[in-house]
Structures are given as structure tokens and as C-alpha cells.
Amino acid sequence: MEGNGEALRADPVLEETFYITSKKNTFYRVKLTEKGLSLQKETNGSTKTETIALSDIIGCRCMRSKKRNAGSCVCHPGASRTQLKVVESSENIQPYDELDMSAYLYIYSYPMKKPRVKGARRRERSTLTLRFRSFDKYEDNLREASRWRLAIKCLIARVPVPKSLLSPTDANLELLLSACPGEDRKLLVLLNPKSGPGRARETFQRRVHPILSEAEKSYEIHITKYPNYARDFVRSKDIYQWSGLLMVGGDGIIFEVVNGLFERPDWEKAMNQLPLGIIPCGSGNGLAKSIAHAAQEPFDLNPMLISTLSVVKCRKTPMDLVRVETRNQILFSFLSVGWGLLSDIDIESEKLRAIGGQRFTIWSLARLIGLRTYKGKVSFLPYDKPIPKENGTTGNGFQKDRQPDIGKISHSKSYGDQLDRYSTICESRSYHDAIDGDQIPDAQERINGLDANVDEVITESLSLETGNHRRRLDSFYSVTSKKSTYYSTGGLSSYQSFSESQSAELGSGESENRIMYGPASTLPALTAALPSTWTQVEGDFIMVHASYQTHLGQDFLFAPRAKLADGVIWLLVIRAGITRAHLLQFLLGLSNGSHLNCPGVEMIPVKAFRIEPAEGMIGYLTVDGEAVDYGPLQAEVFPSLANVMST
């Protein structure tokens, strides 16, 4: 089978030949290049190449065998499979097996899985295990594994690989271990335990922490205790001790953090230096979906995974913000401003928060039956530049550097999820079954009826022999896992819970006497007349909604042509007179963007707008789903004012 030619042509940083003890005339040429890992299998003259793209690798760890109850040799046929476990090489608590001198290198990746017959693309976890048992001393094997780890970590971080340390003659193990790049500062995690259905804590521990642990991303987690807790926290704390701000919850906690940053006199430094990460646990999750949509990632099948991978990769991507002014306050918005139907649904459905995102569907039907109209005036400054058409690029207008899916190592069953020392769940068999002589299922069994042409991860125990023909034991093994059940932090991450007195220092969450900084407005005063360059529409409206992201929620493709940083506000206007049938068509079309084809629906690209409800009218005005003063409101876009974490 032909492999990925680009990966093969790249100059190798490290390479090795591996042999399979259980199969004659079969060996692997394994190369680490700037593109990723290339595994070329050769059997009786036939060649098959599989690759793991560097962009799919999130981290790697060196491990060592845990001490067993019996004193039998690791490779002895009678060794019990349940006795052999692997722990991190840096762990001082767990005793090691003095008879096993192996060093294990686990490489964690999340490649894109090919779609099933009519399915969608998805990312799934794959763990590649290199077992180094070349020498008689563990330190020598660890040094060999550490060279690969150092090179992989440097390539992931996009820093030069210190090739002088990769030489086999370099014996300085301590220097190898300390040379791996890493962020000294932790991530700040702000978690809203009541977001969505109220399972954010459990979700973070079960589905987010394992991936952060694999990538060796340490963090400090703080649980919000009252409304505007996160806002007060980022406003008052020394936030530069952290490498980024990770928000776990819905769009509400993002709103708090963004506006808390603009309450700092050093807001510009904060916005430039601290990227914002989002783990979606709320009912809407519009920004998380928009970021994934911009990166062309398959968000819907596993929102937690895709969003966490964005945090792990932490590529800073610019994002527009909108400055919003009402009679009584100034706010900065990342998602939308609304008046009318959608705002009514958003605010009034709060009483159904316990059922999650379904609350929007239920309340949409209620508001459709009891349809309201709003009298007022809408003014806007049209966007005066050509809007680029969709061209297969990402949401920021650049083509993403992706490796082709063909030839990538894909996913099969789990053989190694019990290696984490704190895990209480073991999936399927251990990879040590191969060491003990058990036969591993063949590829057709592993793919469980999927297309036989889909490349599968190599899952055999291999024996490694170098060019000088020195005898080496099995040094290479490859496993994958569909689920991750790691719970350890390696002592790096921490949970913080303030006392009542410390919480009081942050404030009570009230919005009185807040001082907002940020860029100065370029618009006339809210009470002043607008220039003639603005367009004004007066009358009765069903709704007016402005968005600067593609999605208002996970299933709400509101502005299909929006980009994260394009300087455009997409203003949707529906005037009174639209039929309920067309309005129902509009609501149903929000899931795929077809709502823009409904009669009576206008979508206008603008740079700024003003909404002026008629006096005496009652209703809701929302900013990022939060209710604000009902009355005159104006907003303007500031391009690339914030940075978000993206893949």
C-alpha cells in the first residue's frame, strides 16, 4: 500500500527499525519527521505505510513498569497479565519492578477518523506505545525513550529540536529530561457548576481532565459561587500568573470573563497575552461551536473533545468583539445582540434550564403561538467592503495546514487504558497480553465490520534490533483507545476553593459602580442624531438580531458567512407582517442556515447599528443571551480585539 509521500520525503529527526518477535520477515521502519510519525511495515517484500500527523499528536509520556506481587520476569510466559501495570517514570510513590528495565513511551494523538458509509468525520483517541528495552539498565532505556519524547515535544511546541541531545553518544539523562519545552504557568480554569443541566464539574473531571493530563497541561481550577463571580475574579486578580483563561460552562461565563477583563485598566495587555478557551457545558454553546466551525472540526459528535483539543493546541486565533452601549452601561459582546423573538425565547426559557438545550425548542413553539410585535426604529451603518464568498477556507479566511486523511493511523479497540496509576476502569485487554504470549485479534476482528480498506493501528508486540545486531527485546507496541479514563494530575494541577472572607473580597456580583475601559467609541452619543451615511428603518418588528459568530448555539447556524475576525456584524431583521408559516420555516431553518431563504427575512452586513424601542413598550434586549436595560442601544465592532484558543 502506498503511504503518505510527503511524510516519507521529509528528513527524519529520529528513526529506528523494529522487528516483530511473533512474525518472521516482518519489520517496521519508524521515522519521526517534522510532519509526524511514519510507520512503514515491510512483510515479505510488500510495504504498507501509515502515519500519525504531528498536528494530531497532543503529548507523550515516559513510563515504567509497576512492581508486581510475584518475582517472575516480565516476558516470562507465566507472568500474570493482571499484575503488570505501568506508572509514570517520575512517580516516586509507586514501587517499580526491578526486573523490568524497560522504558515505555506513550504517544497520545487524536486523528480524524474516516466516516462510515454515511457517517460524519470524527476524532478519536489513539495511543502509540514504544517500549524501549535495549539495554540492561533502566536509565539507559529511559535515555533512549527520552530522546524521542524530547523531539516530539519540541515539534509539537514548534520550537527547534536540540539535535545535539539526540545523539546516541549523549549520556546526560538529566539534561534530556529538563530540555523538554513546556509552559511554566498553569491554565486558569473558571467553572460554572450550574451551567446547562448542572453537570459541569463531573464533565470536566471525566472528559476534559484526561486530555489535559495527556498533554501535560497543568491548571488551577476555581468554582464560581455567585453571578458575576468570574467577572470579579478576572478583574481583581493577578491574571498574568496563568497562561490562559479556560471557561467551563455556557456563554454566560464567557460574557462574565470578557467584561471582567475590560474592567481592568490594563485590558489591552490582558486581551493580547491571555487567550480565551471554552469548554461547552451550557445550553447554548454558541462560541464554542463557532470556533470549531471556523477550524472545520467535527464539533457535534463530541463537543467536549474538540473544544479540549483546542485548549491543548492553544493556537491563538484573533476574534472580533462588539462594544455595546445602553443608557446605563457599556458592555463588550462576543456573540450577539437581540431584540424581539429570539431574545424573548432566550430569557423566558430560563425557567426550563434544567432540561438543557431543549428549552429553546419548547419556548419557540410557545412564542410562535403567542406572537408579539415591537414598535421602534433600527438604524445601521452598512459594511462598505466586499464580503468574501465561501471558498473552503477556515473561518478566518486562511487554509488550514492539514495532512490528508489517507494513510493515517486510525482507531481500533482499546488495549491499554489501565496504565494510568489512578484509573479505576480498565477497558478491554491490556497491551501486556501480547508480552505474555496471548494472540491479538487480527485486523478484521478489530475493525468490527467497518470497511476493510480503512487503515488500522498496528497492534502487535515487536522486537527491536539495531544495526549492530545487538539483541533487543520487544521495544515497540501500538495501541488505541476509544475512551479515556485517566484521573491523575501528576501533582501539577490544583483545585482552589476560596473561603467566605476571600470570596467577599471579590465583590457581591452586583453591577453597580463598575468602571469599563476598552477602546473608545467612534459613534455619536446614544442620544445624538446619526449621520446621513446610516440607514434607518422604522415600524413594527418581529425581531432584530445581530450576530458576529456563525452559531448562536450548537444547532443554530445563524450567520453562515460570519468569520471569527472579519470586522462584520450580521444584522437580521424580520418586520411585522410575516406569516406564521414563514416564521416557522425560519425557526426550523436555523439548524442549517436555510432560514435566510425565508420570505420576509433580511440579513445585512453592517459595522454598527442602533436599536430604539418605542416609548412605553415592554420587552427584552439581550447581549450574549444576558438581559440588559430595555431602551436605546447601539453597538460597533472592533476587529481582532480578543484571542481565542483554537486547533
TrEMBL record:
InterPro entries membership: ATP-NAD_kinase_N, Diacylglycerol_kinase_cat_dom, Lipid_Phosphate_FormReg, NAD/diacylglycerol_kinase_sf, YegS/DAGK_C
Residue ranges of the region described as Disordered: 391-410
A Pfam family the protein falls into: YegS_C
One GO term of the biological process aspect: regulation of apoptotic process
Highest rank taxon of the organism: Eukaryota
UniProtKB keywords: ATP-binding, Kinase, Nucleotide-binding, Transferase
GO MF, any single term: sphingosine kinase activity
GO CC, any one term: membrane
Coiled coil: none
Domain DAGKc: 182-328
Protein name per UniProt: Sphingosine kinase 1
Organism: Neodiprion lecontei
Lineage: Eukaryota, Metazoa, Ecdysozoa, Arthropoda, Hexapoda
